[in-house]
Amino acid sequence: MTPLLKVEHLTKRFESGGGLLGGPKQIVRAVNNVSFEVARGQSLGLVGESGCGKSTVARTLLRLVEPDEGSIVFDGAELRTANAAQMRKLRQRIQIVFQDPFASLNPRRTVRQTLAEPLIVHKLGTPAEIEQRIRSILDEVGLPQTTLDRYPHEFSGGQRQRIGIARALVLNPELIIADEPVSALDVSVQAQILQLLDRLKVERKLSFVFVSHDLGVVRHFCDEVCVMYLGRIVERGPTNHVLDQPHHPYSRVLRDSSPVPDPAARITLTRITGEVPAPTNLPPGCAYHPRCAYAQADCSTRIPELLPTTHERRAACFYPLTK
Questions:
Q1: HEC sequence for 140-178
Q2: Three-class DSSP category at 280
Q3: What average pLDDT does the segment 144-150 reach?
């Protein structure tokens, strides 16, 4: 089956240094040769420590950040070569939900204005049809009609995120890019938003690229997961398989350092040792080898490719933990 989204060899570099402060310019490879696919109705998680590149991947998919290399194919259309008019059409079908629901909403616009704007920009309906559409969306995300003429500062964080989700849904997209959509919320509110996204995924048959640092959230919501480290995917596979039996040493340490939301569970958290290398000065070979308990001599001289370890799993490791 042809995937809805196919990303191949995606790369994004940023320059640092130079400018008014002088000094040599340095290159940061925020995303380095990333490839993955998302099927229709599937949710794919991107996980890793802060600074691993997962949010940059999310933004490049909509060309909010322009990639330097690679291919982004959505339903057969290459996004990297699409012109402005083509991207406008494609963005009706791909929407994004941001991490901070307050920062992503215009404080001077009411909820009605916020939800109507995408429909007006894309010329989708008469004023009466637009009003009917936004009222229907409010019901779908669990907000009362009385919110229409209120402003973002009048709502709680969870309510603001529901408004952000409603804005993403109003154009009837097929793919949602969710960039840490619950990390800024209280745990109880996180559960409500995840339940809402779960329901929408089933009812609308939506696909998701779900960025998160919370493995518990990813385990609950995502069918497959990609584990990222310093701009690269180091492991990919079905979520439960990857989190239950990681094949990459980093995936295992990441899992073992994550708390379990069960006060009755007796667990011993593993501390991730060592410092993350500077992204402007990556170590030779496997970037994880200075922190890896399983590293061998050749790990410091060769970069491992993301290769199959089972028929469903891939890991970028010369010595995967398959036993």
A1: HHCCCHHHCCCCHHHCCHHHHHHHHHHHHHCCCCCEEEE
A2: coil
A3: 95
Question: Is 20 a residue whose pLDDT tops 70?
Answer: no
- What pTM did the predictor assign? 0.91
Query: For residue 33, which phi and psi values (nearest 5 degrees)?
Result: 60, 50
Helical H segments across the chain, by residue range:
54-61, 84-90, 111-121, 127-141, 157-169, 187-204, 215-221, 239-244, 249-256
Read out DSSP for 221-245?
Answer: H-SEEEEEETTEEEEEEEHHHHHHS
Query: How far, in whole angstroms, is CA 316 from its chain's centroid?
Result: 20
* Whole-angstrom distance, CA of residue 212 vs CA of residue 218: 7
Q: Among the ranges 34-38, 182-186, 274-278, which has the highest mean pLDDT value?
A: 34-38
> Could you tell me the strand order of the sheet in which 69-74 lies?
26-38, 5-16, 69-74, 77-78
User: Which of left, alpha, beta for 8 (phi over 0: left; psi -120 to 50: alpha)?
Assistant: beta
Question: Does 33 score more than 90 pLDDT?
Answer: yes
Collapsed DSSP state (helix, strand, coil) of residue 211: strand
Q: Hey, how many other C-beta atoms are within 10 angstroms of the C-beta on 286?
A: 27
Question: Distance (Å, rounded) from C-alpha 307 to C-alpha 233?
Answer: 11
Report how far residue 237's alpha carbon sits from residue 247's, in angstroms, rounded to the nearest whole number: 10
| pLDDT (mean) for 168-193 | 91
Is the backbone of residue 265 left (phi > 0), alpha (psi -120 to 50) or beta? beta
pLDDT tens digits, one per residue of 93-110: 999 999 887 888 999 999
* Helical axes 157-169 vs 127-141, angle rounded to 10°: 130
Question: Is residue 222 within 8 Å of 239, Cβ to Cβ?
Answer: yes
